[in-house]
Structure formats: C-alpha cells, structure tokens
Amino acid sequence: MSRAAILAAAAAIVAAAAAVVGWQTEPSESAAPKPVAVSGAELFQSKGCASCHIGPDSTPLVGAFPPLDDAASWAAERRPGMSARDYLAESMRTPSAFLSPAWVSGGPTTAMPDLGLTEAEIDALVDHLLQG
Fold first, then answer.
1. 68 burial level (CB within 10 Å; 0-12, 13-18, 19+)
2. Is 59 buried (19+), middle (13-18) or exposed (0-12) by CB count in 10 A?
3. Model pTM score
4. CA pair distance 52, 74, nearest whole angstrom
C-alpha cells in the first residue's frame, strides 16, 4: 500500500471517529431554546384578559364581562365538586365549558375567545388570579 493510500485511510478513520464523537442523538441543553418565564400578571395584560375583565390591579376597557378580581373567594363555588384552581383553569382551557353567572349579555362578543394558552401560561394566570 502506498504512503498516500495509508494517509488517506488514516484521515478517513479520524474523520469517521470525529463524526461519531460529534454526533448527538438528542440536542444539547444549550441548543434548545429556553422558555421565557412570564408572570401571570404580565400574561393577564399581554393575552388581553385585562381588556375585558376586572382583575388584580387592572380595570377593563369594556365592562360587560365577569370580574376576575378576588377569584379565591368565589371560584370554588362556581361548579360543584370543582376547586377554584380547576374551575379557573377549565375556563381558560375550554372557555365554552361553563357560562359564568356573572356574565352580562350585551357585550361586544357572545363568548370568551380561546386564547391558545399553554399549560404553563394557564398555571401562571391561575396563580395570579388566586393570589390577587
């Protein structure tokens, strides 16, 4: 075998070893995007909740929608057998599941929109409402 062939074979082995060592079956933690932590208070503003609902430290632009301030005092009583946390989460996850007795018809819409919230966002909003 010629010297050039030996060098080429050695280079191929080194390149193959480097490829195996550098190849990852799962992305590294540094390559994955880090979720941005957003507070429930920030979400209440940015998702538009504060535009329609009275909430902790907010006054709505439109006043025909159920108030969400002091949720810890009333949310557990809305649906029999459902905790305040579960009721609020359901109302965000599936807005049409239950019509609030605090709803006043005549607003600019007939239903709460589905905001496409993630579970983490729902948890943060529920925490905000129950602490507010």
1. buried
2. exposed
3. 0.68
4. 19
| Mean pLDDT within 75-83 | 94
Max CA separation in the chain (angstroms): 90
Q: How far apart are CA 132 and CA 129, in angstroms?
A: 5
DSSP type of residue 107: S
**pLDDT tens digits for range 50-67:** 998 999 988 998 777 889
Strand ranges (E), the chain? none
Phi (first) and psi of residue 73, to 5 degrees: -85, -15
Residues counted in the chain: 132
pLDDT reported for residue 12: 45
Q: Report the candidate in 130, 48, 54, 44 with the shortest Cα–Cα distance to residue 86.
A: 130
pLDDT digits (tens, 9 = 90+) for 120-132: 999 999 999 999 7
| Nearby residues of 85 by Cβ (< 8 Å), 6 or more positions away | 75, 126, 130
Q: Are 87 and 120 in contact (CB under 8 A)?
A: no
**What's the mean pLDDT in 7-30?**
45
